[in-house]
Amino acid sequence: MAKPSRILVVDDELGPREALRLILQDHYEISTAQNGHQALDYLSKNEFDLVILDIRMPDVNGIDLLAEVKKKVPETEVVMITAYASVDTAASALRLGALDYLIKPFDRKAVMEVVEKGLSRRAESRKIRSRLDELQLANKTLRREIEKAFVNIQRHYLETVRSLVAAIDAKDSYTKSHQERVVMFAMLLGAELGLSAGEIDVLRQAAVLHDIGKIGVPEQILRKPEHLISEEFDIIRQHPVIGAEIISPVRFLSEVVQIVLHHHERFDGTGYPDGLKGAEIPLGARILAVADAVDAMLSDRPYARARTVAEVREELRRCSGTQFDPQLVKIALKIDLPSRRIT
Length: 343
Fold this sequence. Notes:
single chain; 343 residues; alpha/beta; Rossmann fold; Hypothetical protein af1432; 2 domains; 5-stranded parallel beta sheet; 15 helices; 7% strand; disordered C terminus; Stage 0 sporulation protein A homolog; hydrolase; phosphoprotein; coiled coil; Cyclic_di-GMP/3'3'-cGAMP_PDE
């Protein structure tokens, strides 16, 4: 059995309070308060569906009490009691959220109609609130499902990216071992610079993926044993842009994109693809430029023999401030290259 609706009657006169209690008690749970302060105390401790309050009371004006009720419990319906009808007072009460008026002396039928109207509106408000709560919960659930699906999409895309890296390895046998050495040398440079764990992680991912754009370069160019002609080199120069485009849809690789895009920029601004200069080049890209070049010089390629460590060190010094960041060159020269090399 449903609990009866709760109604609070507020009037400083005993007669009207009792009259309303007697009219309503057979249908509802009635509480009475003899002044505004007592009414506010009741409202702070109990939940009422409807408040019926006198517009004239000695301690708190009915209009002021209405405002307080609506402030504390805005969904509670309020009916005003008055011995006379005043247009100005009615307008003020309605603006503050009063439902209706009851005129003294009370007509039983009018009281029941107004109370039923108020309780019906209160029940409808509860239904709306309950529905809103359900929708908020559903939205939270839906948001979680969307986020979960997005993470899955990102994960699947990253798996695709890794498959592309493997495909590059198959196209160019040099790439895989080169990638591993670039990762290790970049990590050493990053550690010497005092990069944070998060920055090191971004740098590691960029080092793994820095040549992924070579998937868009024809295999005959990658494997060509002679020096590339101008047109072929123009194609090779597109691989940072292609790589950045491939990984840009992966949200958690957002910081990696710019490093991959700019790892062939030169410190003096003559690199590619955008001709960035000095500090315009992301630090991670400057680090990869050194790590990439060092390993390339230490490796046998189809078109060039590996250089000695002494030759690599001399080349780093020669290109400091032009191709490479001078600060990174100083750090690279401190590293024992042969002992760090993967064979």
